[in-house]
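Sample pair:
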Amino acid sequence: MSAGSIGARLTGMASKPPDGAKLYEAALNHLARYAATETGLARVLVRKLERWGRLYAEEDADGEAAAAEVRRAKAAIPGVITRLREAGVLNDTAFAASRAKRLTRQGKSRRATLAHLMAKGVAAPVLVEDPQRELAAACAYLRRKRAGPFGEAPELKVLAAMARGGFTQEMARRALRLDREEAEALIKGLQE
């Protein structure tokens, strides 16, 4: 068995060119394991096709034919994405809401959350500006870093780290002034 055919098996693609049905199956397999946006899933499918093209070119030593097959298969990706969206399997809004909630519980600021969602391909995510939730996220950040009401860290260092994390100076100072019980209550509110 050649190294190329082993690689083809590892990537989940056979020696023959992938079609829309194979891409749909690959997309479902990916979504069964990972949450994804439409843009993110399209990137995954493109990488899979490019891997297949490299392996196909190695096996058959015909780079132009492989490139043509990859281009043909890439043209099927928008149809696969549309099918998944219509089936309700792929939903950028639900992805954004779920990921935003998780990031806030982890102590990420609204700005950091927006940046993360934009990087994942969510077009203009809508996050309601909620000062109480932002304060709770700042408290979660402080607890994770064992600072403020949760530990002994130099205030200026903590303020600088929180600024890099996207928190405003006002929000960071408010979180630092809270006592431990208030901060814990705010963090507990994020779990609901």
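Confidence is low (pLDDT under 50) at residues 1-14.
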